[in-house]
Amino acid sequence: MNTSMPRTIFHVDMDAFFVSVEELYDPSLKGKPVVVGGQRDERGVVSAASYAARKFGVHSAMPLRTAAKLCPHAVFVDGHPERYREYSGHVHEILCRFSPQVEMASVDEAYLDMTGTERLHGLPLRSAHRLHETMKSATQLNCSIGIGTSRLIAKVGSAKAKPNGVLWVLPAQEAKFLAPLDVRDIPGVGKVTEKKLHEMGIERVGDLTRLEDRDLEQRFGKWGLALAGKARGEDAGGWFDSEVGEDSDPKSISHEHTYNEDTAELDRLHSTLMRLSEMVGRRLREGGYFARTIQLKFRYKDFTTFTRAHSLEQSTQLDTEIYETVRRLFLQNWKTGTPIRLLGVQASNFEAGPSQIDLLEPSRQQRWQKALQAADHVRDKFGESSIGLATGMKGGFRERTHENPAALPGKKTERKEPG
DNA sequence: TCTGGGGTCCTAGGACCC
DNA sequence: TCTGGGGTCCTAGGACCC
Fold this sequence. Notes:
Blueprint: E1 9-14, H1 17-25, E2 34-36, E3 48-49, H2 51-54, H3 64-70, E4 75-77, H4 81-96, E5 102-106, E6 109-113, H5 118-121, H6 124-139, E7 143-148, H7 151-161, E8 166-168, H8 174-178, H9 191-199, H10 205-209, H11 213-220, H12 222-231, E9 252-263, H13 266-287, E10 290-300, E11 305-316, H14 319-333, E12 340-351, H15 364-382
Parallel strand pairs: 2-4, 7-8
Antiparallel strand pairs: 1-6, 1-7, 2-3, 5-6, 9-12, 10-11, 10-12
Helix pairs in contact: 4-6, 11-12, 13-14
The structure holds a DNA duplex (18 and 18 nucleotides).
């Protein structure tokens, strides 16, 4: 991108974020081996592990049961996404004090464009230390900070600074910094690419720079070209190459559920699809998105996974339309009687508004939309369980309410005051 | 080891149109 | 008749990230 003036980019990455937040809620966890993500005997993987647990080989994405074997005395804690979102908000607020260009890359990491802030904050290393201190005193959370002339360098830098450190890669030192690192340290190089590179005799980033760009392009396509740039420390290609501070709209919204035990019971499968459809629909309404493509995902017990999508004539944000679509896709594609491990519902292909609305005669669709928005509102006020369009996971039979949606929102409003 | 849930981006083939 | 090529949309799958 802009080559005239080197940028100063910070990558701020919170240390063991989920674990640290859980420790703030329960200080007795401090210093112990802690595993966040579920109970030791549950189907699931580790979301985060404390440094004490990592010493035993526990790491994120590892099955919980494996973690329990490696570290039997670890404390297993369920994850609390709301808590992490809350603290993520605090973190974001702190970061905004240091730069007008802040971009949260996920719940626990952010990029800051610090170019031109020297007059205000001094040299990068100095402002990084101030940021580090402010973060600690304001949130009681540790972070690591990487400083570089590109997002890539900053990101790799913060990883090398962990835990609780700051690392500045001086301008023009990028290639030198990267050369001895493992190819796997480059963001975007995962297990598969690593293996292919190893087969080519490439182990370190420095080995990559000795290859011609076009050789990499031939082997890996577009991605190979980007990889060649990354090896030099450039923000080559795609998202990396964008300005810091452009929070973009989501491209898809999805929810999925893995059963604790596989099931082939049609009632259960249907009610799960209904519940997932409601969750997706709700978020479409909250965000003001109208989806044209609805996708079903299902996984059998042998882990084979399929996706089946359908694009609607008109975009939607209605639970029922989402549900009818995935239900049909499921019945068309499920090998009847085969136990299901996971179901998922995804909405994508967003449009600004519904493709067509009948403005003269309020359509069924519009009435539904109104009813659902009112229902969402009641849920916000009284809690998720105050209204049930479907019984979802709770089992039992679904009420047939299609014909009289307007009756829904008022249905239970007078019951129980919030706690 | 027995594998979550939320996303993004890329590839590739087929349909369809000009 | 047995053949082109580009563009766009749709669908399915896979690598990767946190």
